[in-house]
Amino acid sequence: MTSEWTALLTFKASLSDPSHRLSSWHGRACCQWRGIQCHNRTGHVIKLDLRNPQPYGMNQDTRLSLLTGEMPSSIVSLKHLRYLDLSYNDFKQARIPLFMGALRSLRYINFSNTNFQGEIPSRIGNLSQLRCFDISNNDLNTPDLSWLHHLSLLRHLDMSGVDLSSATDWVRWLNMLPALRVVRLSDCRFSSRVEKTLTHSNLTHIEILDLSRNSFNFSVQYNWFWGLTSLKELHLSNSEWSGLIPDALGNMSSLEVIDLSQNHKLSGNIPRNLASLCNLRILNFEETNINGDIAKLMERLPKCSWSKLRVLNFYRANLTGEIPVWIGNLSSLVYLDLSANELVGHVPIGIGALSNLTYLDLGSNKLSGLLSEEHFASLVNLDTLDLEDNSLRLGLGEDWVPPFQLLTIGFFRSCDLGPRFPAWLRRTPEIVHLDISNTSIIDHLPDWFWVIFHNAISLFLSNNQISGALPAKLEIESASVLDISNNSLSGTLPVYVTAPQLERLYISDNYITGNIPAYFCELYSLKELDLSNNELMGGFPQCLENGSSASDPYSFNHFGSMLEVLDLKNNHLSGELLDNLRSAKRLVFLDVSFNKFSGSVPTWIAEKLPELGVFILRSNVFCGHLPKELMKLESLKYLDLAHNNLSGNIPSSLVDLKTMAIPGGLNYFPESILMFTKHQELHFTLKFEGSAVTLVDLSCNSFIGQIPKEISLLKGLQSLNLSGNQLSGPIPDGIGGLRELESLDLSYNGLSGEIPSSLSDLTFLSCLNLSYNNLSGQIPSGKQLQTLNDQYMYIGNPGLCGPPLVNNCSTNEASKNSYEEDEGTTCDGSSFYISMSLGFVMGLWTVFCTMMFKEKFRDAYFQMIDSVYDKVYHV
């Protein structure tokens, strides 16, 4: 007894216990200590339960309740110990001690989530009395499992997360444990190098088998586990299985759970002979390719299981056809996911009879027709509803009271909820994520909306015709995302906003006027801000200055510390913007085009905004030289400074733009963002595009000097526009090295010399404009240039000859081409507009070229063309 008491105190001394869980471990009565149980007759310690009472998550409570340290060798004095649970504590990447094999009375070991590391000691095989062995979710490994066969009484084995990639004969050793009831071997790095069959199975009592999250990468059809007729749960998800589901499934009459989800190569329908599977509760075929008509598939489900089925998940299973009308007979159904398929037709009214249903997802199909109040009549337990991306119309009266209280998700995007704002939403105040974007609403935004959904995490109302003004005081303390873009909102931005969790705010494409309020400086969590395409005026708040809008001047220095996207394009904003962004070290996308911002392009951008990848200042009044320091932006791939008052030489340090120097280009800017999960990933389109094009546009400025020859080293460049400047000298010979180039515009400059023959090596080039320069000599031919045969690409260069121009190069001196050179070289000169009218085909060329690229690239050019039209019209 004394040795056991000493061993426990030694164990306590080796542990850090910040929450004082072991505070009762003092005195001599160790059987009274917390976590200790002694034998009623002998008094020996038989149970040591130090499981973390706060096991899940990494919140403060979990961290405080961790026991950290090591397991001392004195523990071997607990010779009568039967039960040892150390789970969800932290043993600091220590190895499982070799002396564990000496505790021969052990029947239960739980070392899950304990941060043990290294090889599992084979001496565990000495514990012949062991019934339960759980070492899951650690960084452990073993080259073989031969020691397992000594544990003949083992019933529960969980080695999930253990690296068993070298233990290719694991099936054989598992088969030597006839008492096994539960086997969990998920994420064990199994591959195709495993035994697929057993001549004789000893696993006659096994009830749960989990082999999920492995890489078997062979057919699921012929495998040893199909003969385990005692199985109640079979988990094979996300393990790279392929082929057809075998008919042998029909013999597994005890099955309650079948999970084959996320095996994308799994094909064919489910077997026909499932009539004996009367105990089925959960059927999960999410992200498989079982395909076929959904009605025929569901008819193969055993009718004797209809009253027991609780989960049906066919998300992204390539199903077609109409949802069967008898689906309402699945009376116990709690979870139904038929989303992301090719289902058509109407939603059967019978769904409304599923009174136990809590989760219903029919989103992203081709369903149509009317959903009436009867479709929801008995859904009293529903807390998640997703109908998005269908052609459904919700015919619900203004006085309709939903029988459910949605607690998590209400997704209705692209359904028809309008034209009136759906009044029934005010009776679902608990929704955490609401999406009513593109739902044909043509109505005022009611005042109650912001009151009812003040606790929501994400609110999407975009792409409607919602009118009215935003509230003067907006309190959305839990909101992470607010998207009210592309509506008809007017008035000013709220005077006061409380949104400490707000990460993404989209108010673009409305009619918002007035100034940008100073509280934007205090939205410290903001990652994406899109106020584009409104009628805002004034300057951006001076967040770096001591101002009167906040009591703590230091707080201004925190603005933008989380900001990744800032889009202010197409407003009436003015003043100096960029100094306000010194703290935005994570900024990757900045677009302030089509405003009246002024000042110089600062030299500190590369230092303060090191992640910047998209930089658009088009159509403002920025002036001064282009700083060479800007070229230190290693991630920059989209640089648009067109239509400003920039001057001086184009710096040769352009070559330092490393992302543009990578052939093939790198797209650092995804067009969707992961918001939250609902048993699958949900993505929402970002409010900026164009980032997939690698572009430099310095057009319509006053740059002088030669085109730097170093520009030819930007191997990933896809679009280069230097038109409308005062550049001189030759086109660099190395320009043919820009093998990714699709669009090149050097028009309206003073370039001279011959067109480099290397231009014909640009195999992707589809848009070329060299007009209105002083170029001379024969136009190169061959390869890609043969396909660019529009003479308007070369007009205004009297010294050029050869196709596609009408004059040839047979004489010593080329005659002037069909069009006199235009003396005007500025982007606003009248001659420019005249040439536009002369060259209608050239105009079509411009439209064609710009439409090759993404939306933002197109928008910018179309706005420029609109302004050109206005000026020409008034000439």
UniProtKB/TrEMBL annotation:
Which keywords does this chain's UniProt record carry? Cell membrane, Glycoprotein, Leucine-rich repeat, Membrane, Receptor, Repeat, Signal, Transmembrane, Transmembrane helix
Q: What is the membrane topology here?
A: Single-pass type I membrane protein
Q: Where in the cell is it found?
A: Cell membrane
- UniProt key word Signal: yes
The main place the protein resides is membrane
Tell me where in this chain the Disease resistance R13L4/SHOC-2-like LRR domain is found: 74-239
Q: Does the keyword Amino-acid biosynthesis apply?
A: no
Leucine-rich repeat-containing N-terminal plant-type domain mapped to chain residues: 4-38
Q: Could you tell me which InterPro entries the record lists for this protein? A: Leu-rich_rpt, Leu-rich_rpt_typical-subtyp, LRR_dom_sf, LRR_N_plant-typ, LRR_R13L4/SHOC2-like, RLP23-like
Q: Which GO terms describe its cellular component?
A: plasma membrane
Family the UniProt entry places it in? Belongs to the RLP family.
Q: What is this protein called?
A: Leucine-rich repeat-containing N-terminal plant-type domain-containing protein
What does the organism's lineage look like at the top?
Eukaryota, Viridiplantae, Streptophyta, Embryophyta, Tracheophyta
